[in-house]
Amino acid sequence: TKHHHAEAALMTVSCRSSSPSSSSPRPSEPGSGLARRRRAAGPRRAERPTPRVVRWLERWMGRGARVEGEEHGRAGGAGRAVAAVAIGIAAAVPLYASALTEENLIYLEAWRAVYQAYYDGTYNGQNFLRLKERTLKEYKMQSREETYAAIESNLSTLGDPYTKLLDPSKFAFVTGSKKGGQSSGVGIEIAYPKDRSVEGLLVVNTQPGSPAERSGILPNQLLVQIDSSPTAGMSIYEAAGLLKGEKGTVVSVLVRDEKTSGVRTVELTRDALRRTNVGSKFCEAGEAGGEPSGYIRLSSFSDQTDLEVRKAVRDLKSQGSAEYFLDLRNNGGGSFDAGVNVARIFIDQGTIVNIADAKGIKDYYDAKNAAEDSSTPLTVLVNGGTASAAEVLSGALQDNKRAVLVGERTFGKGLIQTLVRLSDGSGVAVSVAKYQTPNEVDINKKGITPDVV
Prior knowledge:
- The protein has 13 helices and 19 strands.
- 31% of the residues lie in helices and 22% in strands.
- It is globular, with a radius of gyration of 25 Å.
- It is an alpha+beta fold.
- Strands 1, 2, 14, 15, 18 and 19 form a six-stranded mixed beta sheet that branches. Strands 4, 5, 6, 7, 8 and 9 form a six-stranded antiparallel beta sheet that branches. It has a five-stranded mixed beta sheet with strand order 11-12-13-16-17, with helices on one face.
């Protein structure tokens, strides 16, 4: 399984292609209690669901059975059961059948995407089922804008800025941006502020040699406006779209420094961004008698990063390095797989990272007995700009007692998002899992505390 953080590739799934096991509603889904009350009040004539509701019920209940009653399982029992349940829903719960509007169905698609996949099974300490019922009663949803407002109101209760609704244009941008081609932009890595009362988007780091770095924009500063668009309430996906553009064009950003309260406008000329992820240098023994050492600077993670780091370690070792310094400061992450594979360069055995969802640890990544050097002393440099895949690497090296971490507490970005496409072309970015260190310590919002501060 490949996982990437929000700024890297996001998995895209469709409500129309869910597997039977992942699409079946949870046993606690409401309706049965209401149905029992209906039966207690006396029989009621069942109505056949409308074709659109039938199609929605198929998606809602899973691809493994169709409401029309096609035979699946023994003697068509599953198909007949689904048809019976669908008719029962139409008869017993009018809100879920003939009374549903197209806008209701869009809302329910989004609600279901979060209900089935969200990493926090408590939904931030609330009853998400009751929230759905209350929303369907309180929101008229007579237009797409009202439907989106209902969806966003539900998502806001989760307290998770990375679980977001993307309208069709934003969703098309995010999914289309995964295609190949050279990227032109300004070289800013952004995230949501940890303090949600702070307006703007946080600068995690700037890419070396990029227009943003040359202009003097620094980590932990805030982008409060991009061209004429304030960033308050803006998603990182929308901000990324505004910052990117054709090479040579100019984008204006308003930057605020929280330490000094200073605000300045910066004009950035977009340029082709070419990352040099790995740099290394051999350092001779000092006059004070220090050991010869190898310095490796890792600025981000891409598909080839682990190969570059492995080569750098091999070269430095051949030159006589007696210790390594791995610099992860202001490394905002990138490819999750690359972060895991870099850890495997220094660790022969043990767990690298755990992936946990609402039910606990669902997956984990181990070392592969293929370390390039699992014994030479290693020091890892980290700071507040060390995030995501870089935190996965740091946590693995620290918990396996392979390295000493020196610097500042890391950023604390440990969520994995999936994009779920809705039937109107919009989509929901849902946090489906979180990273945990080998010792099962959550990274998200907490970060990793170094051994030496």
